[in-house]
Amino acid sequence: MKTLIRSVKIVSKNSDLNGQVKDIFVENGNILHIENDINLEADEIIEGKNICVSIGWFDLRVHPKEPGNEYKESFQSMEAAALAGGFSEIALLPNTKPVVQSRESVNYLKRAGEKIKFHPMAAVTLKCEGKDFTEMIDLHQAGAVAFTDGEHPIQNPDIFLKTLQYLSQFGGVLINRPEDSNLTHFGQMHDGIMSTFLGMKGMPQMAEEIMLMRDLKLLEYVLNTPFTELPVDKSILHFSGISSAESVNLIRMGKDIGLPITCDVYAHQLCFTENDLADFNTNFKVNPPFRTQEDLDALWEGLEDGTIDAIASDHNPQDEESKKLEFDMAEFGVIGLETLFAAINTYNEKISLEELIEKITVNPRKILQLPIPSIAVGEKANLTVFSEDEEWVYREKKIISASKNSPFIGKTLRGKAIRVII
């Protein structure tokens, strides 16, 4: 297969080619030429007005529904949605049925990707119940890229502490979404003026912030434990789904004192606030919940100054029976693979395109300690071709995911993936 990409702007912050407009010729998965005006026969020619190319996009947090809930999303529809959204690689949470807690389940997910790469994350505890540990070394050797209980934040501080100590022995990565579930029990949305106005039980920011403070303190303890050895310049602890201004400050302070931590924010959290829930649209029911304008501004500032390392979709398909209910009965979650780049590109007012792309290409791979592709002659192709300025309307009938639970339905977005070459 020979593919020619004509007159494409290269977006790769750390490359000498960054910002240059070139032709790129790919044959049998290898980048053979990056030049001006390549005149070679090709099976496929990709061209367009003001198109760009970067290394393949990487999503740090995707909820697979197969095995167990294929009616919400199959591997096939998830992969198709990822390709439409510009992703060449995605990291999968372990909350399937059965839970990803064995070598066999890790290998099963690794083989499930046909056109893109699936990177399975394994459970910290059996059945993600927060009680008994999985065989993490065995799972690491099988190819698990990180350890997390995924949809279930680790509530037990002793489990959390021992996990950090265990993973530090082989350089594993713990991913946790900070939430004290005792403070969010039965919560439906952000605890604020809008929840009071709508008569809904709120989910306070302090549930996230208290858990963050706990986790940072436990990490400090582990670092001061004799014989603890950590990989140089690598994170052992990653916080997923930061949503409040104080959480950004806590992460910033932790990095300032040298803690080996990273964090991400979900794309939809950068676009909406609690006020968008005024009409009880369950497509806006997410966890962590949409918070205040002050929190949203702080998230963008955290991205701008590097406190927040990556942007994830938290793609969580839910069928109609899970969403078309009274608000307090509906499931949490939105789909986001198809809209991640377009959403952040549309709502972005602070960050350069190069920095935005770095949050969904280089940094996610660094966090998971995976190889970082490059756009260079002789390299294997792992590319996403996209338009920065194409405007389009996200319509329900054109959604590729098997589920349709998106807060962006009917909205005009700017920027769109054109082609993934891997």
Automatic annotation (TrEMBL):
Occurrences of domain Amidohydrolase-related (ranges): 246-397
Stored SUPFAM superfamilies: Composite domain of metallo-dependent hydrolases, Metallo-dependent hydrolases
Gene Ontology molecular-function annotations: dihydroorotase activity
Superkingdom in the source lineage: Bacteria
Keyword Metal-binding assigned: no
Pfam family, one: Amidohydro_1
TM stretches of this protein: none
Gene3D superfamilies, alphabetized: Metal-dependent hydrolases, Urease, subunit C, domain 1
All residue ranges annotated as the Dihydroorotase catalytic domain in the record: 56-218
Keyword Hydrolase in record: yes
UniProt keyword annotations, A-Z: Hydrolase, Pyrimidine biosynthesis
Enzyme Commission number(s): 3.5.2.3
CDD domains: DHOase_IIa (cd01317)
UniProt cross-references to NCBIfam families, sorted A to Z: pyrC_multi
Name the UniProt record assigns to this protein: Dihydroorotase
